[in-house]
Amino acid sequence: MTWGEKPNSSGASGMVVTFSWFIFTVCCSLICITQSYIVHKAWRRRTNLFSSSSSLKPLLSDIPNSPPSFLLDGDFLNALPKTTAQHPRCAVYPTIDARYVDGCIPADLCDKIIEVVETGAVFQDEHTSKNKHSSLQLLSPTALTSYLLDAIKNHVPNTLEANEFHGRAKLHSINRRFRVYKYEGASKDTFYPHVDAGWFQAEERDGALVSLDEEDDDRLRGSRYSLLWYLNDGFKGGETNFYPVGTEKQDLVDDDSIIPVESIVPTKGGVLLFPQALSTEMMDWAEKNVCPHEGAEVTEGVKWIIRSDVIYQHEELDNVLYRYDDVVRETMKPYREKEEKEWGVYSPSFLEKIDCLYEPVMGAENLGYVLHSLIRFLKPRRVVEIGAGYTTLFILTALKENDAEMKRIAEATSKNRLRLLDYPWTVESVCEDWSRTHSKLVVIDNCEHQKETASSAVTIAAEMGLKDYIDFKVGDAFEANFEQESVDLLWCDFGVGARMVDFMKANWKSVRPGGYVVVHSSLTNKNTRMWVEMIRRGGGEAMTGVPEGTFEHISLLEPHKRFQNSITILQRRSEDYNEPLFSQYA
Prior knowledge:
The chain has 586 residues and is an alpha+beta fold. The protein has a domain of 253 residues: q2cbj1_9rhob like domain (Jelly Rolls, Sandwich). Helices cover 30% and strands 26% of the residues. It has an 18-stranded mixed β-sheet that branches. The longest helix is centred in the first third of the chain and has 37 residues.
């Protein structure tokens, strides 16, 4: 007979075969029952549940190699007296940025927690290279974490400002994931020096304790402070010691002269709060900048402690893409400082001071703001102005604002905080060049116009603290002699008219590649219009003063005015765009 064949029941041989088949079936059933029992026992061992407490419900855990996990029923809180901690005292330790709140939690609540876990579960022993103790996980009821938050909220920052690891964040909650540690003197239990890693908020899902990490909707919440809740005292040893930065277990073994920077002696109901590191990159930083701590060896008695986390809620846009936004905003947005608001081009005090420079015949009432915006945007270091007056103060103010902005950029860049994702926000070479000297405006004016305002502009510049930014020369623009490629922006406002070709021939090479020439009143007066038409048609150097194929141009008109109503902008550049490519889309 082969496997799967129905046995023949006729005759003696059939009876033997039938009996054999019966014995085989019974054996298979016993094996299945035994395997089911073994699997059931294995699951019981995994949850470590010997439930004599209705306050605990076993949970699976999504955290690898985690100790047994239980849901703590909130009903047990109802049986407690409605008490609060009496006169908690907070000690601050600036060296380690820690706070210890003595008497933070009522003693009867501490006792009840110990009673629940002692009678409701068996702990898992943890013996690793850095710790030796027993532990389990509790998912706390929200009533208990709310109680804890209310008890400690005055002892941690309500708001964390943005830094290189996270954006601005506000105090939100206490992590429901409690790690209960039991240190026994008989076993010399301890936890060697380490820096705490942070955790995301935890909750129950389908009978399991899960951590809401970056893949979940709650990714904007993460822990920033460790919370150690001491459930008892009366044992010997067990201090929480903080050591010098970089101290490890072997250091204490090799060198008994290393002493703690701070040592916290646990008291029943006390809560210790100190910074932790949530991300991998933050942990790398913390190990080089944060004092590690240890749970010193317990030599007698039993020490009970709960470790949880203080959760902060990041601003809605604080994700991987926008984490540095606060830093970028603080660095680059104009008029951040009080001083800037007082002398900025939109301030009443600025407009009042330059009012005497405005002459309608010059037509510069809107040009000041155009030039200010161009210079703020293009960041020229050396500007030349032919014909000074109303626009001079706008240019000087833009140069000063540029220098202030670039100083902020240099400071933020030196701290590695001015970033988009993992990339620097700014171009290093430009920022480095900027630090060598401040910007400068060279002004050339013959001061012969009947409505001349150049000399007054220089006086007002000095009164506004802009004297160091201006170099005023009385003279003829056609006699100016600039070094080649030394000018970033050349502003021509002196009625050159028919001599525009000669002026450009003499000065085009002084403009650096990528630099600009801006010419006033270029479209609606006949003399300059002829030059603009030749520029537009590619008339060549003989007709324009500018070699063909070395520039781009655009002309802008104030359509409501007849006179002094336009500008033409030339940029010195090759036919190809040779600006570097920094990104695919941004």
